[in-house]
Specification:
GO terms for molecular function: ATP binding; ATP hydrolysis activity. The chain is built from 8 helices and 10 strands. It is an alpha/beta fold. Bound molecules: adenosine-5'-diphosphate (ADP) (2 copies).
Length: 228
């Protein structure tokens, strides 16, 4: 699904990704853990084409991200849903309208949007919040809206950048349970970038440990953290 080979990335003269190799297979919940500044977000942004990389290769569905033009990138991003630490919802729009946004961008009909948004609200368990503005939701509910929006176009992969870092431990558990459920039910590959070991231990089957732009270790979660 996602094949990363020998990727180097520089900001000016600073090398922030150093020979990163990673293979993320279909249907996996793959964790990338490391301290702040390790290069995790930069790597995610390279995967979805928000950042350029000059050296190495990133294949998503066998397509080299760097070689895609704007139109091809837009198509590719349909396959890659993304969620963030601070949810990135539009405050002036309702829950329904937030989830409908990607569908409107791709010119779905009113009926199709209505049907799809209701399905998604049901999937993430917030049907009753449909007409509410984000400020009246809890953190966990906001992340559920963001997840629904990220899934609107039926992506094959969900990229999660510190998706539970702003949530309390119980809410974190329930969001992780939802992600696991989505992985199982819909077969979506999930990439979890995090600095929280609990996140890795709770849902990730494989894990890569990053530090200073490098992958220190990579493998099955059980094998890597057996001794810790
Ligand atoms: P995180 O660790 O949560 O990814 P950062 O503090 O590293 O957050 O980055 C927050 C934002 O600031 C990002 O958009 C990142 O691209 C940008 N940023 C981080 N470090 C620098 C820097 N040295 N120069 C310019 N922009 C930076
Ligand atoms: P992480 O997500 O693991 O916290 P980042 O990918 O955000 O790490 O950052 C990796 C390194 O790149 C950090 O040293 C950060 O300061 C630097 N960095 C991130 N974004 C930028 C940017 N836009 N410009 C310059 N430096 C950046």
């Amino acid at each position: 699904m996602i094949c990363i080979k020998k990727v180097n990335k520089y900001y000016g003269k600073t090398k922030v990704l150093k020979g990163v190799d990673m293979e993320i297979r279909d249907g996996e919940i793959f964790g990338i853990i490391g301290h702040s500044g390790a290069g995790k977000s930069t790597l995610l942004r390279c995967i979805n084409g928000l950042e350029d990389y000059k050296e190495g290769s990133i294949l998503v569905n066998n397509k080299e991200i760097r070689t895609l033009n704007e139109k091809q990138l837009r198509e590719m991003r349909k396959e890659l849903g993304m969620i963030f630490q601070h949810f990135s919802l539009l405050e002036r729009k309702t829950v329904f309208e937030n989830i409908a946004l990607p569908l409107e961008c791709f010119k779905y009909s009113k009926e199709d949007i209505n049907k799809r948004v209701l399905e998604l609200l049901d999937l993430v368990g917030i049907k009753d919040k449909k007409d509410i503005k984000p400020r009246n939701l809890s953190g966990g509910q906001k992340q559920r809206v963001a997840i629904a929006r990220a899934l609107a176009l039926n992506p094959k992969v969900l990229l999660c950048d510190e998706a539970t870092s702003a949530l309390d431990p119980n809410t974190t558990k329930s969001i992780l349970a939802l992600l696991k459920d989505i992985n199982k039910k819909l077969g979506i590959t999930i990439v979890m970038v995090t600095h929280q070991m609990e996140v890795i231990k709770q849902i990730c089957t494989k894990v890569a440990i990053m530090e200073g732009g490098e992958v220190l270790e990579i493998g099955e979660t059980e094998e890597i953290f057996l001794h810790n």
